[in-house]
Amino acid sequence: MKLSLDLADYYAFPDHRQLHEDPSEGTYCGYHDIEGGYYRVRVLKFSQPLGLYFHHKEQARVRLIDVGCVQVVDVNQLLTLPEHFLQIPAQVIETFICGVRPCDEDVDWPEEHQIQRAQVFGGKTSVRG
User: Fold this and answer.
1) d(C-alpha 43, C-alpha 76), whole Å
2) DSSP assignment, residue 28?
3) Residue 5: which H helix or E strand, with range?
4) What is the pairing mode between strands 78-79 and 38-46?
5) Contact (CB, 8 A) for 55 and 74
6) How far is CA 104 from each of CA 11, 112, 116, 128, rounded to the nearest angstrom?
7) Which residues of 76-110 are buried (b: 16+ CB within 10 A; e: fewer)?
8) Contact by Cβ (8 Å): 103, 110
């Protein structure tokens, strides 16, 4: 929560909301979403190679490093991120859960448990092995 407030405080100043001039895959940036929130993101991939006028058309696939989700955003929403925000570790980590079975040791989950599991794990799919 404090990190979100710190980002909002920093980007509250118009001079701090500078578009990232040269984002590339792996770059950490600030991200301003359409609802007004600010996040730290890592660029994963671009929809097409960046051109001369990239601020107006290209999109980037980014991971919100403090939330854990992946989104496709307009490149013109990527902001420079000051060094002091880069020193803070990501606030979420990726985890894998395996070997979870229903209490009765059956391998098939009842429908209501599948729905509940999807809600708890953010709709992520599971792979049976």
Assistant:
1) 13
2) E
3) helix 2-11
4) unpaired
5) no
6) 52, 15, 17, 17
7) ebbbebeeeeeeeeeeeeeeeeeeeeeeeeeeebe
8) no
The residue among 55 and 51 whose pLDDT is bigger is 51
Q: Which amino acid is at 77?
A: Q
Summarised one tens digit per residue, pLDDT across range 9-34 is: 999 999 999 999 888 999 999 999 88
Q: pTM of the entire structure?
A: 0.69
DSSP 36-99: S-EEEEEEEEESS---TTGGGT-EEEEEETTT--EEEEEGGGEE---HHHHTSPPS--------
Pairing of strands 70-74, 59-64: antiparallel
Q: How confident is the model at residue 129 (pLDDT cuts 50, 70, 90)?
A: very low
State the distance between the two ends of the chain, measured CA to CA, in whole angstroms. 37
What does DSSP say about strands 59-64 and 28-32: parallel, antiparallel, or unpaired? unpaired
